[in-house]
Specification:
single chain; alpha+beta; Alpha-Beta Plaits
Length: 99
């Protein structure tokens, strides 16, 4: 099982999606029902700022599994939210590269 970080970048219009109470409740239920989504939250560059994106830490077998998770999220709107998936390195893998 690998660990992944997903960094979401939102367009300003994403505020409409976040402001929809039913969609927000569906997103929260979705996140809580996914144990592979270990931690996540909104990104803000400074306090009290609108969120320009979000970040997730995910444990999954493959990048495709992570992408499937993203596409199922009620908050994901392709025209308003882009994402970058990054696999975590492990200490042993990094040590092997340095040797």
């Amino acid at each position: 099982m690998a660990r992944w970080t997903v960094t979401f970048t939102d367009k300003p219009e994403m505020d409409r999606v976040r402001g929809d109470r039913k969609r927000r409740e569906a997103h929260i239920a979705f996140v809580r029902a996914r144990p592979e989504l270990q931690i996540g939250g909104a990104l803000a560059m400074r306090p009290m700022q609108d969120f320009p994106g979000a970040i997730w830490n995910v444990e999954a077998e493959s990048r495709q599994d992570v992408e499937r998770l993203i596409l199922q999220d009620p908050y994901f709107v392709a025209s308003l939210r882009s994402y970058k998936i990054t696999e975590w390195g492990t200490a042993s893998a990094i040590q092997g590269m340095l040797s």
